[in-house]
Amino acid sequence: MTPLNEKIYGLIGYPLVHSFSKNYFNQKFEAEHINAKYINFEIPDIGDLMELIAETPNLSGLNVTIPYKEQVLPYLNDIDPAAKRIGAVNVIKFVEGKNANDFKLIGYNSDYIGFGDSIRPLLKPWMKRALVLGTGGASKAVNVALEDLGVVPQPVSRTKRPGVLTYSDLTPEVMAEHKIIVNTTPLGLYPNVDSCPDIPYDLLDDTYLCYDLLYNPDTTLFMKKAAEHGAEVKNGLEMLLLQAFVSWEIWNSKRRRFLSPD
User: Fold this and answer.
1) pTM above the 0.85 mark?
2) Which of 3, 97, 100, 121 lies 20 to 30 Å (CA to CA) from residue 195?
């Protein structure tokens, strides 16, 4: 039974084998004496979302993970402009209406905000173009955030297609034009710590910024090899923490819109 007036927040996805958000928020609620609980809602089909909402009293906000970041879009009443451009949502805000059963669901993308806020202080005047390694869901948020920061993103994948470079296309000329390299692939993620994206690390120097969205291990092989050639490196831990902070801000703010990275 839910304690009186206890707010419920949670994560929807399938399967949910690990959740940073659950541990983070429940520790936050306990430390700050907030009458709330964060629950992992493992739903096998996105069609179960509205039933979950109806059956969960005091549900006040949701995070969304794979495979529902895109599938959830039709269930939302409104979508933040950045999330709409990305085509994916991972935070849902509940906006109350005049009565308990009258509410709207508004979607946001905290990957976009967390990445933009974490990389902004590291940008240098000569960093005008970026190679974004990988073309999965996370890369879409990275691309939009970079664009809004005035950086031109160039997707890189193992598969050749229009507008996308392959790793074999990373010539010295291409590398010289792109001073930011962002790894959005799972290469190097624990326990496969001996793998990394196949880029020409020997062409890097201290004018490069190499950002890995991974945070486990702290220093991925991608980061280690880049740092050996003088590049500035950063992992995804701050982005992860910022995402959680942004979720809380979205859920508890009166604002309907959140500004793009400046």
Assistant:
1) yes
2) 121
> What's the pLDDT tens digit per position in 226-250?
999 999 999 999 999 999 999 999 9
pLDDT in tens, 92-130: 999 987 666 678 999 999 999 999 999 999 999 999 999
Q: Which residues are catalytic?
A: 69
